[in-house]
Amino acid sequence: MNSLHGKVALVTGGSRGIGAATALRLARDGADVALSYQQDKGQAERVAGGIEELGRRAWTVRADMAEATDVTAMVDGAVAELGRLDILVNNAGLGVLGPVEELPLADVDRVFAVNVRGAYLAAQAAARHLADGGRLIHIGSCVTQRVPFPGASLYAASKSALTGLSKALARELAARGTTSNVVHPGPIDTDMNPADGPDAAAQRGFTALGRHGQPDEIAATVAHLAGDGGRYVTGASIAVDGGHAA
């Protein structure tokens, strides 16, 4: 298991699902963890409590990733509260599905503001603080590599942008030993996409393994990239999708 003792991580959208599992896994590996949430303060505090039960420090902050001032304050606050920043996990995201000819401009702007601009601004703010050997890890989506159903144009476009951002950051920050990678989850069993939901059977059918993944399975890959074992991986797009792209 990777050792992250002495490291500080910030997980955006860390109050539930993949974000919560990632925050807890990084803490289990030894990191102190800051996590952002947008709506459910109670759930964020429960995750923070789990981090503290593991003997690590935790800090929660409300942040709307579409608001530039929130994003900057989130990163700066994490550094002020926990003393440094070594790992940023750009997990917060927004999914809006629908026919391309029908989606209103407000939805387009909001999805790109959260999924692309928010991730960019978080990475920009983090780059000012990251210690040498830092880690940027962005949570993409399996639909960037294969879109097996209609109505996902907006979401796929926004998540695909993370690949270009991550590759550019990998080049730009390499001299400092900082890595940047994208993890593309497949269908994951969360409250936003439950394994017993109305579209779950179809989603399972798109994967080679024929099942939903678990948030911990994404968190394990993030933890590997965040730790010493990930020091020579950068600019990569890693599918943890049960064979969705196979």
From TrEMBL:
Gene3D superfamilies: NAD(P)-binding Rossmann-like Domain. Residues 7-218 form the Ketoreductase domain. This is Oxidoreductase. Belongs to the short-chain dehydrogenases/reductases (SDR) family. InterPro entries: KR_dom, NAD(P)-bd_dom_sf, SDR_fam. One of its GO terms (molecular function) is oxidoreductase activity, acting on the CH-OH group of donors, NAD or NADP as acceptor. Keywords: Oxidoreductase. Transmembrane segments: none annotated. It comes from Streptomyces oceani.
